[in-house]
UniProtKB/TrEMBL annotation:
Protein name, entry field: peptidylprolyl isomerase
Keyword Magnesium among UniProt keywords: no
PPIase FKBP-type domain segment(s): 50-138, 162-250, 274-362, 386-473
Lineage: Eukaryota, Metazoa, Chordata, Craniata, Vertebrata
Gene Ontology molecular function terms on file: calcium ion binding; peptidyl-prolyl cis-trans isomerase activity
Length: 569
């Protein structure tokens, strides 16, 4: 308040106390005339004796001539009502007013400045007319007023001193005049609670809030900016009203918080550091805002855990998961993206919540996991590499997603083991099986389809096979198409040249080989197409590709490979 205004108020107080008798008006008023020409619908409080108030006014004479105005000075009037610090008429006329109420007051001389008046400003015996609007009411005994506007159903934790909070707010004076808003800045207000970084009233008003809670906090001036106010937007002795939405909060000492939403009954193994995990997730802020989702990309997130490839909080949060588990991982910012955030979706100092569904995991050192479901009695002959086998299978992901099944076709799957015709893990899982045996195989990706996956198979996927061996045929060593069970005939070419014309065409060659097989003297490489095997054998021996084999062309494989264990044409 300007020095001139203070002098005027002191003069007004002195004149108000003189009690000068009323002179002049033919029908003098005995008391203040009050016209409550605007009363707000909601009146939470009325000014009482001893309350501290702030108000604006225009002061005029009966003819409308203005003698004073707080508007002209650009500052509200602040003071205590009902204790004699104002002229008696104003003291009486302001009592009972609500915030935002407007009144016309007619103050007779004996309740104004009496027969003395105010030199050069208010003549003696003047009736005064005031147009007043009440802006603020508070009392030194007031406390913080907190109203919960909305609160989440789930609230596992509330704000405590030393917590770091992120909140949105609209700040107004008690009459509704806005002075600040985080929404207009497009970012939350981020600060510690209870460490003196906030005004006392806000420090207290945020305590006990849940993330997502909305509150109205009314702060009396002595818990706000007091007698000095703040800049040009908050007057001295102003009550403040904050509408607050708590977005999130954490404590610098917080670790990762885990909530096990669904854990499979059967959990044979839990993920550890060094495991490679495939999982789906929804990532949200604490107020529920979605910032990322693997589901939207229709692709799992695949990574090693415990090796620093992901944020520290997720590295910790995935430890110990089971295949098929649903887990909620709450990560404080110092274990996530810190004060800087990430991109335009994750604000600085944001708490992150990941709802995770673990699809599968493995370790690069994992072998094929084999579970024998059924093995026939008297199992003496088992599969080896190079054997030809027929088997049925169902292939799925570990989450149960069906990929392929031999039952969708007319006959079982056929393959020569060890010939690189199936993935390594399946080949390993089919070894040492009896006909009729059933197994469950868990094949890690490095023994399956690897990081790239295959048609219908995601990259880095662990596969589950249910296999049943239908039949097996003893194979031949790698590189062989036919082996003798004993020694080959001494005069092999002569016996093979059935018409003795000095050349062996394809039909003679085929007839001879089939005869050796039928008589048990040798066996072909097992195949679903023996004719093709014989044709390949003929082509190998017909070295000049003239359609017949000559004595110079016919050679045993032992002659070529110098291998004495088995011999082949």
């Amino acid at each position: 308040m300007a020095p001139g205004s203070r002098c005027l108020l002191l003069l007004l107080l002195l004149l108000g106390d003189l009690g000068v008798p009323v002179l002049g008006d033919p029908d003098p008023l005995e008391d203040v005339v009050i016209d409550r020409y605007y009363i707000p619908k909601i009146c939470l409080r009325e000014a009482q004796m001893g309350d501290f108030i702030r108000y604006h006014y225009n002061g005029t004479f009966k003819d409308g001539k203005k003698f004073d105005s707080s508007y002209d000075r650009g500052a509200t009037v602040a003071g205590v009502v009902g204790v004699g610090r104002l002229i008696t008429g104003m003291d009486r006329g302001l009592q009972g007013m609500c915030v935002n109420e407007r009144r016309h007051l007619i103050v007779p001389p004996h309740l104004g400045y009496g027969s003395i008046g105010v030199a050069g400003l208010i003549p003696p015996d003047a009736t005064l007319y005031f147009d007043v609007v009440m802006l603020d009411i508070w009392n030194k005994n007031d406390k913080l007023q907190i109203t919960t506007l909305s609160k989440p159903e789930r609230c596992n934790r509330t704000v405590e001193n030393s917590d770091f909070v992120r909140y949105h707010y609209n700040g107004t004076l008690l009459d509704g005049t806005p002075f600040d808003s985080s929404y207009s800045k497009g970012s939350t207000y981020d600060t510690y609670v209870g460490t003196g970084w906030l005004i006392k009233g806000m420090d207290q008003g945020l305590l006990g809030m849940c993330a997502g809670e909305k509150r109205s906090i009314i702060i009396p001036p002595f818990l706000a900016y007091g007698e000095k106010g703040y800049g040009t937007v908050i007057p001295p002795q102003a009550s403040l009203v904050f509408s607050v939405l708590l977005v999130d909060f954490h404590n610098p000492k917080d670790g990762v918080f885990l909530e096990h939403l669904e854990v499979p009954e059967s959990c044979k193994r839990r993920a550890v550091t060094g495991d490679f995990v495939r999982y789906h997730y929804n990532g949200t802020l604490m107020d529920g805002t979605l910032f990322d989702s693997s589901y939207s990309r229709n692709q799992t997130y695949n990574t090693y855990i415990g090796k620093g490839y992901i944020i520290p909080g997720m590295d910790q949060g995935l430890q110990g998961v089971c295949v098929g588990e649903h887990r909620r991982v709450v990560i404080p910012p110092h274990l996530a993206y810190g004060e800087n955030g990430a991109g335009d979706k994750i604000p600085g100092s944001a708490v992150l919540i990941f709802d995770v569904h673990v699809i599968d995991f493995h370790n690069p050192a994992d072998p094929v996991e084999i579970e024998t479901v059924f093995r026939p009695e008297g199992c003496n002959v088992t599969t080896r590499n190079r054997d030809f086998v027929r088997y049925h299978y169902n292939c799925s992901l570990l989450d149960g997603t069906q990929l392929f099944s031999s039952h969708d076709y007319e006959k079982p799957q056929e393959v020569t083991l060890g010939a690189n015709k199936v993935i390594e893990g399946l080949n390993s899982g089919l070894l040492d099986m009896c006909a009729g045996e059933r197994r469950v195989l868990i094949v890690p990706p490095h023994l399956g389809h690897g990081e790239s996956g295959a048609r219908g198979v995601p990259g880095s996927a662990v596969l589950r096979f249910e296999v049943e061996l239908i039949s097996l045929e003893e194979g031949v060593p790698e590189g062989y198409l036919f082996i003798w069970h004993g020694e080959p005939p001494a005069s092999l070419y002569e016996q093979m040249d059935l018409n003795k014309d000095g050349g062996i065409p394809a039909d003679e060659f085929s007839t001879f080989i089939k005869t050796q097989v039928a008589e048990g003297k040798g066996r072909l490489m097992p195949s679903s197409d023996p004719e093709k095997v014989i044709a390949d054998m003929f082509q190998n021996q017909d070295r000049n590709q003239d359609g017949k084999i000559t004595p110079d062309e016919l050679k045993l494989k032992s002659d070529e490979d110098q291998e004495k264990i088995h011999e082949e044409l």
